[in-house]
Amino acid sequence: MLPVLVVLFLISYGLLAKLVMEQGRTIDSQRSLIRQLFGDSSQLSAMNGKSAQAQHAAGQAHNPKAKPQANTPSTQVKPQGSPSQVTPRNQARNEQSAGKSRKAFPRRPPKAAADEADERRTLVVI
Question: Which of 34, 71, 77, 122 has the fewest CB atoms within 10 Å, measured from its CB?
Answer without folding.
Answer: 71
